[in-house]
Amino acid sequence: MAGIDYLERIPNNVNLAENRRLQRALEEWQPKFLEWWTDMGPHGYQAKEVYLRTATSVDAQGWAQFGYVQMPEYRWGIFLAEPEPGRTINFGDHKGAPAWQEVPGEYRGVLRRLIVTQGDTEPASVEQQRHLGRTCPSLYDLRNLFQVNVEEGRHLWAMVYLLDAHFGRDGREESEALLQRRSGDRDKPRILGAFNEPTPDWLSFFMFTYFTDRDGKYQLAALAESGFDPLSRTCRFMLTEEAHHMFVGETGVGRMVQRACELMREHKTEDVRKYGGIDLPTLQKYLNFHFSVSVDLFGSEISTNAANFYTMGLKGRFEETKKDDDHRLKTATYPVAQLDSDRIVMREEPALPSLNERLRDDYVEDCARGVARWNQIIQKAGIDAELKLPHRAFRRAIGAFAEVRVSPDGRVLSEAEWDANKHAWLPTEDDQAYVQSLMHGVTERGRFANWIAPPARGINGQPLDFEYVRLG
Ligand code: BYC
After folding, report:
1. Using one digit for the tens of pLDDT, what is the confidence trace for 239-254?
2. Distance 72 CA to ligand 1 centre (A)
């Protein structure tokens, strides 16, 4: 069962051939997906051979194989983690009941909305990144970009499978709509804010894969706890693939930090722009931007939606089963950051509507660990500087802090103070133009752009000068 059937037109481990109606629906959707991929997927390179990994099984050990693939030939398919026999719902009002194999009628609308919101982010990120190939810092990075892109495409398949298999005609309509919205489009934008922001350069790409893909990790982990078993199983397998995306982000930013430090030491100056590097203050500004956009993705601090998702048994907490409490949370409280006139204070709030904030807390803690690793790179270079996560209330568009201006260190500011300082906290047009000026495709084997250090090792044990993408 763990093996994936690659003889099928749509590779899968869900016995698709036995469900003719579903198979037909997905086979009708497949050419539309490919059309979307051609129009909105990576620009150029579609006919090139890329050294990609493809899932071959859903076992945690040895689940993927590597080989040259032209992206439109990538075997997108439907892979669910193995079922857990006798799985029960682990939280909310239905705690202890058998996990649902079919959608509970009364939760149909809510569940569909959750799946559509998750699904919408996947093609959105591919659209956001579609022009990056031309300016890749190396073949190694180009290959990583495409790996991320094809897997986001597969994650779209994962959600479309759930919609088509479990939501009848509405589900099929939503599957079509997922291919019709466009990142950043004024008339038919993607659903969530961060997925309508442009990703115009590789610095933004690495920050996005570090901060925004990490939101994916936490949202998928919360959905992997779902009492709706097919959603849980599909999210569990998606998390396996997601880990690589965050690796690309963490090492990408780490390599830029490393290069900035090398240039600082070599030229005994902090102004490494003169030498074609990305200086630490610029990295900090991009970090501030991407962190703030990504913390918004967790929704409002106090949310009845979040309380309902939990009570209904549809979306749990991060590592729900490891939490030592009643998993119903009707009387529990949770400390939530809030605005008290011009100060930010912590207040105990009922735990259920605070679940977005709780997931955000897990996320922020995880983000901080990577920042600490980047700071180790700076320290090891003997440089006295530090990157910092901004305060969670900084530059928010969603939730209690959306109406106020807050500095990176968490002070509520007047509009005038904000205006006087924002250029020091967020990328300016000049910063963007500078970063853009560095973006030139480097496609010679084993070469890396001057603004980024080579990685510690290659992909799948291959050397750094491996031909990760065959351009000839
Ligand atoms: N932008 O009660 P509220 C990933 C809306 S990333 C725009 O505060 P709720 C990936 C909200 O929809 C993971 N709108 O929040 C990463 C609601 O609208 P409706 C994606 C927003 O509902 C990289 C209203 O505001 N997965 O996989 O508790 C590359 C009030 O909502 C935003 C998921 O998000 C925003 N930032 O929670 C590729 C999981 N925030 O319904 C992939 C599924 C809130 O009143 N989604 N709103 O019209 C969810 O669990 C929830 O929808 C959210 C929002 C956590 C996003």
Report:
1. 988 999 999 999 999 9
2. 30
